[in-house]
Amino acid sequence: MTAACPSCAAPTVDGDHYCESCGADLAAPAEQFTLQPSAGPLSPPVEAFVEPAPPPSASTGEWRSSKAAAGPCAACGATAGADGYCDGCGLRRDAGSEHAEHDLPGVVAVTDRGLRKRRNEDAYAIGVAGGRRAVVVCDGVSSAPDSDAAATTAAVEAIEVLVGGGDITGAYRSASVAVAKLAGSAAAYDAPACTFLAAVVEDGQCTVGWVGDSRAYWLDGDGARCLTVDDSLAGQLTAAGVDADALRLSAQAAALTRWLGADAPAGDPHLTTLRPTTAGVLLLTSDGLTRYPTWTDAIDGDGDAAELVRRLTNFARAAGGADNIAVAAVPFDPSRGAPQP
Amino acid sequence: MTDESSGVVAEVFQNEYLPEGASVADAVVTITAGAGAGRTVGAGASAAEVIMIDCSGSMSGERLVQARKAAAVAVDTLRDGVAFAVVAGTDWAQMVYPDVQTLAVANDDTRYAARQAIRHLKAGGGTQIGTWLTLARELFLANPAEIRHAILLTDGRNGESARTFQAVLDQCTGLFVCDSRGVGQNWSAAELIKVADALLGTADGMKDPAGLEEDFRSMIEAAMGKTVAGVALRLWTPAGARIRFVKQVHPGILDLTDRRTDVSARVGDYPTGAWGAESRDYHLAIELDPDTVGAVGEEKLAARVSVVRGEEVLAKGLVRAVWTDEEAKSTRLNKRVAHYTGAAELASAIQEGLAAREAGDTATATARLGRAVQLATEAGRSDTVQLLARVVEVQDARTGTVQLKRRSENKDVDIDAEIAALESRRTTRVRTN
């Protein structure tokens, strides 16, 4: 083998015209591959996702994520293997951090394990590049294995695309390809998975893309307005104007109908664009916060963004901390061109 | 997890949840090689076959007639180009075909000539199996074939000392795979199991020689289907861990625990012989360092399992341990693990019971064979229960209450116990989910 297929990354042999695995034309430039729309949510054509060209000017932007720092094993000091386990004592390395906070000019994020979960399977990544501010929040699906790795990998992959100038759909596809690689072939129906929520703020508008049930809100003087629709039966009903709470639906109604991972239903993320005319905060959060309906009481319009995300995280912990929490905020003021510090 | 290009897949079945303080991780690893396994070798892998036929005095009559037929069928089943020889075994080993000590190359002429030579097999003399295996070894050593397989047919007990026999087995280990068969009334299951364990083959026995022909055909067919030799199970285990056992548990039970070759401090290889398109199960039990077992909520790796040929990794899997205080999780048994644990216990209960019976230890024999009846009943293995019922009087199969029958003059009954000992080593696979 000499090279990887630009479409599905399977190994190829010198002289091959087409990929043995996905049939892609190996002689064509990478841009030619496009996502094949699929009729049903059966098999995810993850291989068909474009792996975007490397960012043209990655050096101009910077980003931070909640990914755990590399280093020797906390228990025995040995190094970790590529599979995420210590080569000495076998201790599992979590992909994410128990608690992390980062801020860059005009964008902040916090994640916390909460009180009940064994590890933090939420992840965030924030980035700035020129006039662009970008945020990614991913929530690992706890019923799937290695979901912390899925969430962290997706967040990091996506922010690299967004900081490099790519759009949210490209970031989602790139994250999908990376997370699909985490799955073993034996685990085709039990693959690492996570939600995906990303926002790009530039040129006076906020674009939000999502798959799953992590949510984006616009907070201003009028309160919190949800910009996203959960990918679940309950979420769809609510969006259609039905009072889902009153229906007393089973827990199944909250089950995700879409997610990001090797076994995910095909398709691109939902997108919505907001052009605020008033100053406010774009908030991105996992359901570790929004599961507590009174979370909006913890919003205080006076504090700065860093203060806000910390207060919301503390609120979720105080309310029970049943799930991991990831909250990110981008303050926005249409009257000012530059990012709000 | 697997490297898809190799055509080999490893799947791990386990309950990774351990109660607080527990240190033993149990897992069944299912390894499946597709038709294209080890493609670099391919279907044209060079193969060599040695067929060893017991020609001791007791073989005379119907048994030798059937053995001749079976050997002829085996020769006919060899594909063109396979290096082969037929050996007659008595107190020593003698070349039947070709008549000099070398391997012939299978084609229409050599197969015909071999069949003619087999027709002239005569019975007379004793049984010194080690000498037969030694000749097979010399034949294989002089030939570069990659896939090396032998068939050993005997109707009696080995006349050699256990030490001599073991020394020969040790010399042959790793050089070739040998399937052994007992026929008639006087062979010993324990000896065939020794050959199977050392040479990674199957062991089987039958009273009636009429079944030999079909059995030989299927053994050769299986051997001809092998495409890659020298495949090993490689285990990485964490510092301080002890490997309790590594066993092949499907399609038959083979204990590989003592067959480890250290690769590095934490990595060792266990031989699995030659593979074709097939699927096997391996049961691993790993005892983690009791001083460093995880706290509740912690997760550790108990083993990295890979299938290797030389340094080429064909497939990979992980055996994990997660400590929990939720009893519902930690007490759940993985079906495959439980199934093979039961099968292995049944096989060893019969073998231990027969060994005790042989040694005149009636108490132990009764206890072990009683346990075997109980396990076989629980597992629904009625054939095994019936065979055991010929050596023990079953009073209550459910509780395993039995009484040892007197060793009978009728060898026909005694051999049933030997057949049961071999039969119990063959396992079926349970469906999971």
From TrEMBL, chain A:
Pfam families the record matches: PP2C_2 (PF13672)
Top-level division of the source organism's lineage: Bacteria
Gene3D superfamilies linked: PPM-type phosphatase domain
Location of the PPM-type phosphatase domain: 106-332
SMART domains assigned to the protein according to its UniProt record, in alphabetical order: PP2Cc
Protein name: PPM-type phosphatase domain-containing protein
Species for this entry: Dactylosporangium siamense
Automatic annotation (TrEMBL), chain B:
CDD domains the record matches: vWFA (cd00198)
Pfam assignment, any one: VWA_3
SMART domains: VWA (SM00327)
Domain VWFA: 48-228
PANTHER family: VON WILLEBRAND FACTOR A DOMAIN-CONTAINING PROTEIN 5A (PTHR45737)
Name by which UniProt lists this protein: VWA domain-containing protein
Organism: Dactylosporangium siamense
